[in-house]
Write a structure and sequence with these properties.
Blueprint lengths: L37 H5 L1 H8 L7 H22 L4 E2 L10 H13 L9 H4 E2 L7 H14 L1
Helix pairs in contact: 3-4
Length: about 150
Amino acid sequence: IEGHTLRGLGHPEMGHVVVKRQDGDDYAGRCPFHRDCLEGMACGPALEDRFGPAEGWSSDVGDLVVAYLAQGLRSIVYSLAPERIVVGGGVSKLSGFHSRLRASVNAQLAGYPPIPEREEEAFITPPLLEDSGLVGGLILAEMAAR
């Protein structure tokens, strides 16, 4: 917010927001704390448990992740009202992933709150795709050192 990382009592853990289990999904969940939170149902290791190595993932994997991720992002939009959401990772490289995610989030928001006119820019791929986590960590370290 205004160039600073949001801080509370600890670091934010948005991956642990509650998601409703998809019909027919009997996977126990990967998260050792909550089992079926967003991270437990849709993180990379959870997907590897279900579908094997990422190189073999199909659009069906993307559909499952979109279903869970859209639920989690809905909670985040309601809580933080971000201007932009950056979604990366292996599944986000699947064909049409970002457009399907945007459509699913918008459907779940059901018009509330209104999405800005710049809807296409609201959900973006990390500009540095493979290195975005590392670069972001370095930027945060530099900011903390000032």
